Amino acid sequence: MPLELAAGLTLYFSRHGETQANLAKRFSGKKNTPLTPRGREQAHEIGLVLKRELGAAPAIAMVASPLQRARTTMEIAREAAGLPREGFTTDPRIQEIDLGRWDQLTDDEARALDPAYYDRRMADKWSVPALGGENYEQVATRLIGWIADLKTDSFAVSHGAATRILRGLFLGLDAAHMSALDEPQGVVFRVQGSDVVQLPPAGPGLSNPVPMG
Q1: Residue 103 CA: distances (Å) to CA of 36, 37, 134, 206
Q2: How many independent structural domains does the chain possess?
Q3: Does residue 207 form part of some domain?
Q4: What does the pLDDT look like over 21-74, one tens digit per residue?
Q5: Distance between CA 76 and CA 72 in Å, rounded?
Q6: For the domain that residue 104 is a member of, what is the CATH number?
């Protein structure tokens, strides 16, 4: 059964802007990786979309993953929306999947650590964790708990795998179809009930790197 927001609530969420690890096509979990100049432009684009949808200085609860790339994206987006850079909360439940020993490795480097295990995990991301990290079910559990605690309209900045899993939960997808979803940056999704809509861009900031994680 698809995940649903409480009646009357609206959730907006985005992935952080492009990072150096994204550009290098490296797995990026809990380790820090800075935004690229394009990533900062994408964060600004997110703020412009919020401003268009909600008006200048929108009065909406805002929460970011505690990881630096998400917090920086939130700060830039808030400024573009006409808000102070500070003034949001953080919640570890929306941080990226823990990729353990694969964090900051390329696909080939990660597989080389243990090819058989890597292949097993890629065939069952729901149950098999990244080497020394989390599986999709563990991430889904914390995201579901976060959604259950939402009491007001909110905007959140999270991560690639986490937002794919969140979208998949609202859409009622299995792990394989969650994993196949894109990872757009510089865009805002809106959720009401179980209905997920990608809002039109305000500028040219869209990026869809290959899903990693």
Answers
A1: 18, 22, 12, 24
A2: 1
A3: no
A4: 999 999 999 999 999 999 999 999 999 999 999 999 899 999 999 999 999 999
A5: 6
A6: 3.40.50.1240
